[in-house]
Protein 1
Amino acid sequence: MEIRDTQERNTPAIRTSAPVEKLSEAMGSSYGEIMQIIGSSGIQPAGPPFAMYHNMDMSNLDVEMGFPVPIKADGRGRVKAGRLPDGKAASPRTSAPTKRSRRRTIGSPFSYRKNSWRANRTATSST
């Protein structure tokens, strides 16, 4: 995680409550609903989606999720027009692992096969 300074931005968003076990479903349907509305207005997101947690009650999370957009977007249904305030925000690091870092973590498929072959060969030749 890294802390970033953010500027105030327009956001179409949905605020809802869900237990943590159902959060991915709630987010998926909410992000889809928001994209349909802004897409039908010809607006493209101005950045990645966000989620803002208003409590930490894992049995009933109060979460607001949406997308920053370059212009004010009208709300419709559950989607409300809003603004993200400026200030500090936590953001995950999004760099993808490289081939080299994956090898250090899980090993390459070749080394796994080679080591398995060596272990099987040793086990069968000692009998």
Protein 2
Amino acid sequence: MHRSAHVVGSPLRLEVATGAMQLRACELVGEGRSFCHQHEKANFRVLAKDGYGNQLTRVGEKFLVLIRPEMKDRPWCEGNEGPADSSVRDDCDVSYAVEYTCETIGRHYVSVRHGSADGDELPGSPFVLRCLPGSAHLASCRFVAAHHGVRALMLERDLEALDDGKERLSLGTVGACGVKLKVQVRLRDKQGVATRMSAS
């Protein structure tokens, strides 16, 4: 401007590009960054940012993610065996999707490096990851016991079930009263692995 008047062509458009990627500014987002379920695919994303915290506008960065279980006799180290199966995908939206599956319950460590196995690690890496028992799979769960007050109920065939070729079970008949019915079920995941007992 000159004496409060715009010069010819003013105002001019100016685009500010993001700077070079800085590992210290990158971050991991998503539930899979801190916990997962045994035998189930989990995921999180790596957001690539410049030194000012701006998400990059260009793609093509390379990240390597290694997930290993904690060894009872020693902390995280490169020699730990049994890494979880993991992959990193460039979604071309300047974020990088990480998918993995843990086979063992317990604490794991997530190492995130830039470029290759010899590349620099993200600050705070390796991150702690908890692998929880698998989610209950209804078809794999098993009935354990049922009580109506002090009376134990037994499973029996339901003779009044619809005739569709499928066997149905019944706990029989109880009288209407204020006594609570308590049922226990052994919860199992999709692989049939018992995880825990359901609450009564």
Protein 3
Amino acid sequence: METNPTPTPDANRRDFLRVGTAAIALGASASPALGREGPVRAAGEPAEEWRNRQPGMAYRRLGRTGMMISEVVCGGDPITLKNYKHIHKAIERGLNYLDMAPAYNGGDTERAFGKILAESPKMRDRVFLTTKVSSFNSVRTRLYRKILDGLPAARQEAIRREAKAIGRSRRLEVPGYFLTYYPGQQKGFESAYLRAAMQPEFGDRVENSPEVRRTIVESILGLRRRGDRLAIEPCIPPDWTGFAITYRFGASTYRIEVANPRGVESGTSDVQLDGRPLPDRLIPLVDDGRPHEVRVTM
């Protein structure tokens, strides 16, 4: 849900940059909750959940959860198999939050984090590991804009005025308040404000649409179309023993069964199509009107 946050008065730019500088020294990024000091527990909040608590590192509650997150976190965008070993130093100093996305470096970020977690049986319990649906907002933006284009001109203008008002209230474009995370980031402001303005009235048509649901499911289960081939790269809880899904390509159907006998979170060891092993683990998509069986072992 996109809501209108209330700016935190005690989070000034100097404090933000001070923490950000420390983050850069560790090859990480500053956590977003700079305006709240210490592990304050409000009425009704869940009990604190601590991981990798180390002296010298400050921690803050993540939103309304009980997760106590280090003030220095590791964003996964620059992390690759050639650039990840410095994270060990950050974890030694108390960092406990690793963020990634399927789109980061073509999956290299996920593999690099996987190497870190595999180096020690207890490492997974020391960090909070997060991911996201990379194409989520682009799909939502397209659906909201399609609705907007079908509205009367006067209604479109009213929605655009509301979107601009939301932007002003969030103060992101106030000099000294916003810190650019990546080049061109400001280009996404207008779409984000538009989604926020339209969501109260049109959210059910977009957020519950088959396309958004499919985007989420395909991202979590790791289905990625690459030209005329399909890659399956699941990222699931280790206690999942497997799952099955039917994928349609033209008049053909692909019944995909994924087994997780080792209780892992990601990665595949074997992919077979109609009983035939696929060395590159990529499933060729053919519109031949026939049913196909795919078996994937993690």
Protein 4
Amino acid sequence: MSGPTTSVASSPATPDSSSRPIRIPSVAPTSHSHRARLPQRDPLGFPAFAPDLAIEVLSPGDRAGETLAKVADWLSAGTRLVWVIDPDRRLARIYRPDGTESVLGEIDVLEGEDVIPGFACPLDSIL
């Protein structure tokens, strides 16, 4: 079987028959091409495609292994950029499909790269 072993999103009204876990990021901006595939009315559940950018904001009880599994699933499903924001450590980890990873400190700037060209946000402004 090819493709990711985890659904990025699935509607509760039509559960995935393989009972794979659903990975929903804290924030998931999408491109115009993805938005064009959404129904005109608010759907129940979640769209069945990977977001262009997945933003996960960690909570104190989040486990590193579970977070890394989410990151791997999102990237495998086609997400182009993942930001994991860690408010307690005052840093962000950036993950890309090519396997590169960056760690930003609170004085650094989150950038949209080729996913959201021109976007820049000082990390300390959201921590």
